[in-house]
Write a structure and sequence with these properties.
By secondary structure, this protein is an alpha+beta fold. It has 4 domains: 108 residues, Alpha-D-Glucose-1,6-Bisphosphate, Chain A, domain 4, CATH 3.30.530; 111 residues, paz domain (Beta Complex), CATH 2.170.260.10; 133 residues, Response regulator (Rossmann fold), CATH 3.40.50.2300; 307 residues, Nucleotidyltransferase, domain 5 (2-Layer Sandwich), CATH 3.30.420.10. Helix 8 crosses helix 12 and helix 14 packs across helix 15. It is globular, with a radius of gyration of 29 Å. One of its GO terms (biological process) is regulatory ncRNA-mediated gene silencing. Belongs to the argonaute family. Ago subfamily. Keywords: RNA-mediated gene silencing. This is Piwi domain-containing protein. It comes from Triticum aestivum.
Length: 741
Amino acid sequence: MPQETIQVLDVVLRESPSWNYVTVSRSFFSTTFGHRGDIGEGLECWRGYYQSLRPTQMGLSLNIDISATSFFKPVTVVQFVLEFLNLRDASRPLTDRDRVKIKKALRGVRVETNHQEDQIRRYKITGITPVPMSQLIFPVDERGTRMSVVQYFMQRYKYNLQYTSWPCLQSGSDARPVYLPMEACKIVEGQRYSKKLNDKQVTNILRATRQRPQQREQSIREMVLHNKYAEDKFAQEFGINVCSDLVSVPARVLPPPMLSYHDSGKEKTCAPSVGQWNMINKKMINGGIIDNWACVSFSRIPPEEVHRFCCDLIQMCNMTGMSVNPRPLVDNRSANPNHIENALRDVYRRTTEMLGKQGHEKQLQLLIVILPEVSGSYGKIKKVCETDLGIVSQCCLPRHAARPNKQYLENVALKINVKVGGRNTVLERAFVRNGIPFVSEVPTIIFGADVTHPPPGEDSASSIAAVVASMDWPEITKYRGLVSAQPHRQEIIEDLFSVTKDPQRGNVNGGMIRELLIAFRRKTGRRPERILFYRDGVSEGQFSHVLLHEMDAIRKACASLEEGYMPPVTFVVVQKRDHTRLFPDVHGRRDMTDKSGNILPGSVFELMTCHPTDFGFYLCNNTNIQGTSCNYHVLYDENNFTADALQSLTKKLCNTYARCVPGLSTVAPAFYAHVKARVCTRHYMEGDGSTGELNIKLLGGGDKLVTDILVLFPVCKCLSFFSMPSFNVITVLQSGYWKAS
């Protein structure tokens, strides 16, 4: 069933709404779909719906879902600037920093002028003047007569400009600019804000659109009736008939995996109940050891409360199975949030000197950081700690540190444990010994891979590819990870396998797959005999292209290690942003839903809704109010998986995520890769993210690569990043041998 045919019919069904609504990718938005909510900083939330035509086992199916996104509020530019910058006094001049923010936010936005009653003109903003309006002078005729913008508007339009200390908007080219006072312009309605939203805005959108499953199902039904597909003339011309009711599909619920903990010094097991479990009367299966730690607070919390919080947190770490020195290496320090980098470097210097005096070669193992009350410093702290200083950090919000509860302290302890090399839980050891389907039969390595792209507006920034791989066969709980910068918005991972030329050694094989295979051999003493590759973030139109390139890279990486080495590979694409919404057949039935009203965790759908020819399934594994699920496409399978075996293994991997107790909806290795790539994109890019340079600090003499996801196991000892004219390449130098001694 050719993809082009599906695209043609999809275009037919999108033609009518494209005339009536604002189109954003595959979604349509309008103010007629419901109340537009204010999300802050001059933006508002519009409601709409997602629509996509897909081939399924039932034939062609139309996927409809409720959606929402951010738009500019149709207000004057002055009002937008006041809200965007959170200003109260419009009379004060804008700083250079404010001007850069406004220029970045308004570039490309269409405005209409309101200083002429008889006519309204529209312009597209290309920039902002570097000087205030009162100092802006331009030629008004061919004789070279020059006049200020303020004088021109008074003389030409009898319009008295008030915000003369603010810069002007600029339209047109630099050679022939058009200057527009902000107070004389209004933002045209219906323009989507495509830049990255801050955390508060994202929260406001989620609050405005969150619905219980029964409400969401009703909203989708109402949207389908509102669209009146039966009256769509374009659909009629092509003979397309859309049923107005949802489709009922069969499902089954996979049993929860048994998890191992420690209890009173003995290993005990627990089974998740409706997808959830807790740490009550349980201890970590392998607790980390921390001999030296420190704390720095950038908040306004009194020092005695900071001390109390640290004591409570360390006590919780020890209660849950870790071994942590109750006393910090140096006294807790409070610092000004305006001098974050200096404070972090000072703590690093003091602790290094203290350890040196004690004759220890170790470095600081953990730095607890209490964030400032004002948001925006988390990324800077992570970047300094993990790319410059090379120390493990745990950030805490001041409102949690001031009033910590037991549940919060337990969650932080779980994060700290995996950051220092411990393990919180594993699949039941007896079950592992008896055999995890597919994994325990022969040495098996499980990969997760993803590419994260820079936010809209940063056209010169690199995309970041991340690949993680399991290292503790047969239990599959610890992962090593590597990252690589590659050309802007390129989805194919470029550095899975690479060959570089060395003047002395000739051709040198490298790349992330090869290095992770070597690391697995060193860790387990066995070479991987099977490969399972979970690939995140690939759209259906890219399936064949990504499969062809990345499978070839995996094959070449294996062949470069040993002649004739070709372990069978299963290549699975994970689509976690799938818009397929799955609802219980009967809402409210306790045996069919969780406490949120969603279908039960572990529900698998493999009939009717999946691709007609490809091997795939939907898996819902977490409890959330949105009713989301992950779609798994098996693009290539040399291991001859049965549907039951792959579904069971995937569900178990969803329950091995180390940083929280409930299971994930996404398979753990793919989620690790996603978070690793996202963290590098958001926090580790040099400058403003537009240079595309990426630097990582190696810990302990090059022993660990620290990221925000520190459950990832230490990377290879020799890892260097270097900059190229157009993009960055990660080069892994050979360290050790493929064949274990």
